[in-house]
Design goal:
The structure holds 2 protein chains of 2 kinds. Chain A has 9 helices and 20 strands. Chain A is an alpha+beta fold. In chain A, the strands form 4 sheets. Chain A has a 6-stranded antiparallel β-sheet. A 6-stranded mixed β-sheet of chain A has the order 10-9-8-13-19-18, with helices on one face. The longest helix of chain A has 18 residues, at about 120-135. Chain A starts with a helix and ends with a strand. Chain B is of the alpha+beta class. In chain B, strands 1, 2, 3, 4, 5, 6 and 7 form a 7-stranded mixed β-sheet that branches. A 6-stranded mixed β-sheet of chain B has the order 11-10-9-14-21-20, covered by helices on one side. In chain B, a hairpin with a 2-residue loop joins β20 (about 435-445) and β21 (about 445-455). Classes of the chains: A alpha+beta, B alpha+beta. Chains A and B meet through β2, β3, α2, β6 and β15 of A and β2, β3, α2, β5 and β7 of B. β3 (about 60-65) of chain A pairs parallel with β2 (about 50-65) of chain B.
Chain lengths: ~450, ~475
């Protein structure tokens, strides 16, 4: 069944079977991925994947069902299952299928033909060139862990029984390299990547050099004595931290009592140096979008403004509950998930000083360049974190020896109050799902480093 | 043969044969089809009420073609003849060699069912599932007035797979999983702490008993409350006693991933060249065993159609072998150990863990604590991660206690423990006799798969504990 017919059929049937309102969400992706190992394409993957999600309300209770089988019989099943699911709900929450109030949507162009100016053969040649170049850079480069390219085209269609009818097409490609270096039995690894949909922006030598240099800089890294110390968290590492704690800014978590930000709107929660934005309309960001997971138009908002919590992220349901007008952060991870709240491009606004100036301003301290184990070593609800880390010592305003086999620990809510300087080197991480986190390098007054 | 809920055959044997043949017309050595049909239900409760109920059907076909040591993988949701043949044709274009001579004759062989399911969750009324969730909520919420919120998540899934390959292998299997996750939040002023417990197995609804649900609910709240009132964890190097059950995550991260052919085959593991050598203390015997009945990580057959086996990885500290799948096995010149796994039809399989554990030793837990002058007793662990190339790993303590002069003296909050694989394994100086297993999800290049980690209570002479000063 073709998409339009499918959607019409499902919405008609849903209303006939007793739903008050319904929504169909169809997502289709095509993927290509190439992995190179020792000059040969070791894995070559092509994929075509489509899924449909239906959700519907009966007396303001909502039921969800999805399927990867798009025949009529499966559509009937989906409606039946969604109805059973709606019956299981006994929460008092009023679930809402968004009504189209003549919304205006900004135009975001997330599809670029330049991704295909290089054919598959040429992309393979590029991977071979990257491999050759990595080994040529330094004799300590021992092997290449991962050398790969991937691209995705994605199409989303969102139609509901209240006038929302939206479509979006986007594409993105990425190169990723991870190298292993060795000297005298000391083994280190590091990676770097490129992602975007205009391959004209891609410089393979630059990406490879960054990965190799990061790895080489870690050779002879040592652990250090445990202590509390002024910590400069590098941009990407801080972006990871912001991302890991971003769930606390979701109105859904706040309303459900699993965020410490409950009741804190308008209060100072961080150093006045800190401003954090959520902007779904940023240029050149792959996950930028004109409509959110329930079809509402998106807009930029300041979450933290010079240390004060000014806004939290809402979808239509949470906004209605809170009695506010602004929403546009409905999250939908995939056709297999429910609609909740999610950040889009969520980032710390950049400051004045360069990364080098930040280092110079620190007498004795540590730079943290990498953090690991975020899925386990931190708890978004308590704010506590204790993460494996790597970096460099700072002495007399200079970057000194590399450090690894340490942890950096603290509490997120205390840490953001202790920010003493913010750099100008804003960098975004690889997007994960529907969110992309970014930050410049940030200096924290004191964090605990554990080592020897 | 995989049949859906309406009794329709997913794909006939003849069509499978045609697709496998079409994939090899450009000179590939081997082709394999993986057909998956899965039904899943998730329900979430928060604040005493069911907030979310979501069900779905996953369906897809993954095609793998191997030529030499390289592979091509393609997948789709479309199961009609034209789409499948087009998939095979497109995938095979990546090879440009001469077609080899072969004949594909699919012969079904039965898969031994190690994992008996008594009550298929699909036949259980949602009222019963809701009863369990609400029981857990009540017990957790009423445990103490400091408990401010409780979330309970329920899941059940039923998966049917067909695996067929150009060597004539044809097998089908059915897998049923269910889990109940309880998260309890304790709150005072500006602080919150969380306690988490779960019940999960490759089993049907018979897994759940009210009594165990009540215990786990109360335990989640007990942890949350204790941690709220606990001091921060200390910082620095010290002996660490890791309790049994999910404590086995230390082995999973420190060593497990490094013993998967996935890293070993390409020399990207610190264990790659160490078979026959000492890689751990002689108290350590470590095993990966997918044949144990009804454990969360168990399998009847691996995702290439090879039966699972009990793989002794380390014996009294000596490295004996690895977990191997077919393709990496080719690179290593070793046979498959029945360890090939994948999250779904969207991933080519590779060697992964199933139920991985340190075998029980002689000491009792009491003896281990009494023998410790000062250290950390890690009672509950969170997850962790590792870089197999360098051996550096980390994992998190969720509930900890300080041990002093052979006694547990006070609770402390969580922290990460870090180390390097072989180094830590050699520092295990006590192994208890109380083996238990914990359940988790393990992520790697073939996606997220259910695994158990297990061990008795053990002591590591020295580890870096990432607390606060």
């Amino acid at each position: 069944m073709e998409n339009k017919n499918l959607i019409d059929y499902v919405l008609e049937q849903a209303l006939e079977k007793g739903f008050d309102d319904g929504e169909v969400y169809i997502a289709r992706t095509k993927n290509l991925s190439l992995k190179l190992f020792e000059s040969e394409i070791d894995t070559y993957t092509i994929a075509d994947n489509v899924g449909l999600s239906f959700r519907g309300t009966i007396n303001q209770k909502i039921g969800y069902a999805y399927t990867e089988r798009l025949d009529q019989g499966s559509m009937d099943q989906v409606i039946e299952h969604a109805k059973e699911n709606a019956r299981s709900i006994d929460s008092d929450d009023q679930e809402i299928i968004l009504e189209n109030r003549d919304y205006e949507y900004k135009t975001i162009n997330n599809y670029c033909e330049n991704l295909y100016h290089l054919g598959t053969r040429e992309k393979i040649e590029l991977l071979k060139a990257i491999e050759k170049y990595a080994f040529s850079l330094d004799e300590r480069v021992k092997s290449i862990n991962y050398n790969q390219y991937g691209e995705t085209i994605s199409e989303i269609q969102l139609v509901n029984s209240k006038g929302i009818d939206l479509y979006e097409k986007s594409n993105v490609g990425y190169f990723y390299i991870s190298v292993i270096v060795e000297r005298n039995e000391d083994i280190q690894s590091a990676s770097h990547y490129f992602y975007g949909n205009d391959l004209g922006d891609f410089n393979y030598k630059e990406m490879t050099e960054i990965a190799v240099n990061k790895a080489l800089n870690l050779l002879d890294a040592r652990s250090i004595e445990s202590k509390n110390v002024t910590t400069l968290i590098k941009n990407e590492a801080f972006a990871s931290l912001i991302g890991a704690f971003s769930s606390n800014f979701s109105a859904e978590n706040i309303q459900k009592g699993s965020s410490l930000l409950q009741g804190k709107l308008g209060e100072t929660i961080a150093s006045e140096q800190l401003t954090v934005l959520d902007n779904p309309l940023l240029d050149h960001q792959i996950i930028s979008r004109s409509f959110d997971g329930e079809g509402a138009p998106t807009r930029c908002k300041k979450i933290i403004d010079n240390g004060i919590l000014t806004q939290v992220l809402h979808n239509k349901k949470t906004a209605t509950k809170a009695g506010v007008e602004d929403f546009g952060n409905a999250g939908r991870h995939s056709y297999k998930s429910k609609v909740d709240v999610a950040p889009s491009n969520f980032y710390v606004e950049k400051g004045e000083q360069t990364y080098e100036q930040l280092i110079e301003s620190i007498d004795e301290g540590i730079i943290i360049t990498d953090v690991q184990g975020l899925h386990a070593g931190l708890d978004a609800i308590s704010g506590d974190f204790s993460l494996a880390a790597k970096g460099f010592l700072i002495n007399d305003g200079q970057r000194k020896q590399p450090v690894n086999q340490i942890t950096v620990s603290g509490n997120f809510y205390e840490m953001i109050k202790d920010i003493i300087a913010i750099g100008s080197d804003l960098q975004f991480k690889l997007p994960g799902g529907q969110s992309c986190f970014g930050s410049p390098s940030v200096v924290i007054d004191q964090l605990t480093i554990s080592g020897k | 043969m995989v049949v859906d809920d309406r009794g329709e055959f997913m794909i006939t044997k003849d069509l499978i044969t045609e697709v496998l043949e079409q994939s090899l017309t450009t000179g590939g050595d081997f082709s394999e089809l993986y057909i998956e049909y899965k039904n899943k239900l998730t329900m979430k409760l928060i604040g005493g009420a069911i907030e979310e109920s979501l069900s779905g059907t996953d369906y897809g076909i993954g095609l793998r073609i191997i030529h030499g040591l390289n592979s091509i993988y393609a997948y789709t949701n479309k199961n009609d003849r034209d789409s499948l043949l087009a998939l095979a044709t497109e995938a095979s274009q990546a090879i440009t060699k001469k077609k080899k001579d072969f004949q594909i004759d699919l012969r079904e062989t039965l898969v031994k069912n190690n994992n008996v399911i008594e009550k298929n969750p699909k036949t259980i009324d949602s009222e019963e599932k809701i009863h369990l969730m609400k029981l857990a909520y009540q017990e957790a919420k009423e445990y103490d007035e400091l408990i401010s919120q409780v979330k309970v998540n329920y899941m059940d899934q039923h998966k049917k797979i067909t695996i067929a390959n150009s060597e004539g292998l044809y097998k089908t299997d059915e897998q049923t999983f269910t889990s109940l996750n309880i998260q309890s939040i304790a709150k005072k002023e500006n602080e919150m702490q969380v306690g988490r417990t779960k019940i999960a197995a490759y089993q049907g609804f018979e897994l759940y008993h009210d009594q165990e649900v009540i215990e786990k609910a109360r335990e989640a709240s007990e942890i949350a409350k204790k941690m709220l009132l606990a001091d921060p964890c200390p910082s620095g190097k010290m002996p660490v006693i890791i309790d049994n059950g999910f404590g086995g995550v230390i082995f999973h991260e420190a060593c497990g991933h490094g013993l998967e052919a996935t890293s070993v085959a390409k020399g990207n593991s610190v264990f790659a060249d160490k078979v026959g050598q000492r890689v751990a203390s002689e108290l350590v015997t470590a095993i990966d065993d997918g044949t144990r009945s009804n454990l969360w990580g168990s399998i009847n057959v691996d995702d290439e159609g090879t039966p699972p086996q009990k793989n002794v990885l380390i014996e009294k500290g000596i490295l004996k072998g690895f977990m191997v799948d077919r393709l990496n096995g080719k690179r290593m010149n070793q046979p498959s150990t029945g360890s090939a796994r994948r999250q779904s039809y969207q991933y080519p399989p590779t060697s992964r863990m199933t139920n991985t554990y340190i075998a029980p030793g002689e000491s009792t837990k009491q003896e281990i604590i009494e023998a410790t002058d000062y250290g950390l007793y890690a009672k509950k662990m969170g997850g962790g991660s590792v870089n197999p190339a360098t051996g550096e790993f980390n994992f998190a303590v969720m509930e900890g206690y300080i041990v002093k002069d052979g006694k547990i003296i006070k609770p402390v909050r969580g922290a990460s423990l870090i180390g390097k694989g072989i180094d830590v394994l050699k520092k295990i100086d006590k192994v208890g006799n109380n083996l238990a297993f914990g359940q988790g999800m393990c992520g790697s290049i073939s996606g997220s798969v259910p695994v158990t980690v297990g061990q008795p209570t053990i002591r590591v002479k020295e580890m870096t504990v990432g607390g606060v000063k």
